[in-house]
Write the structure tokens for this entry.
Amino acid sequence: MNQRHESNGPADEQQITLRGPAELADALPYLMGFHPNDSVIMVALHGGRGRFGGRLRLGIPQSPQEWAPVAEQLAECLIKGSERRGERPDAIVIFLCKDPAEGESGSQVMERLRPLAQRLRTACGGLDVPVLEALCISDGRYWSYCCPDGRCCPAEGNQLAMPGTSVMAAAAAYAGIQVRGTLREMEARLAPLTASAAAGQQRALDSAGAELMPKLLDEEGREDVARETLDLARRLMKRLREAPVAAPSAADISDDRLISHDEAAAVILGLQDRETRDRAAEWMEGPEADSALRLWRALSRRCVAPYEEHAAAPLTLAGWVSWSTGDEPGARVALGLALRMDPMYTFAQLLHEACNQRLDPETLRRCLRGERSARTGRRGHRTDRGARPRTARPTTARRKKPPSGATRPEPAATRRGSRQATPGRRTSRDGDPHTP
């Protein structure tokens, strides 16, 4: 196999030519920003020289019965998504990444996944886009499902290059591109706490839910909860920002120690309200972004059983801030986890699709800046009016305030404000039908 693939962007950017399965396999972590585990990855190629385009990732379905429909869905998603951006793929490259189970070899993994590779190739061909290469990567080796030549693609597979020694590694180092470890490691930073810490956090969530429930059912109380949630979140961000800088390996532990169980519970439950969450999404750039991202990660880790589904809000905010600040791999991981917790969480769905389509986040940043400016203007106007005498009205005469932010996405499910504040709601969703 000596096909030639070239990854190139604008004319003033460095161009890298990749020849054959070996260099494609070595390039995968740099294309994704991490070492994928247990993943189907599809990359669109454009033009005669195979310029890399859109890409998507999905956890490998455990049941082979799911492989056919999933293959069709993935092929359609990548091809149709590329068409919507105005550039239909000329070819596709497929990667199947899977660690061997105990007692299993990489060769056995490759053979076990061969039907999935064939399903994917057939699905792409059915949409008139050929699969140029399909690789299995397992146990430090790679195999080609497309190359029949045993001289270059033997049955025992080929050893992956040593990290940092490939042409792509050299180009990535020159460009300042970093590989953030494995997908499993990235997800672990957002996973719920375990052992004794989880028990204390669960009690705090139970207590906060009982306290907030009556308030969330009342309009005036709901506004109070929103204000208190955002004020507390600001204080926590300030606390994180002013804390001594910890080593990367200890940063998450340090952040967890700075936030009490009760504080985490209050913000987590407050963020279940859509308008409150959208207000929090405004902390997306400048000095606010770093401390906001640390807070959302920490809160995601505090969504312990049976509150795992509550993590959809902080995970989505973590994904949004990551995308807004240029960390697309981190954004895809966080948004993928949010959709694993709640596949119907519309804000995560929209952000995930936009991120995968490589859209510019500035459009949403501009919208959120406008919301903040408009709200500040309304607040100033109310302050001016407040200096004049006014007739007191009984609270029962309060008119219902129309929902703000109507132009922004809202989850398709019934708003969780009071529903998710109720403890004991468990989720059994463990599949991820989306691509981080």
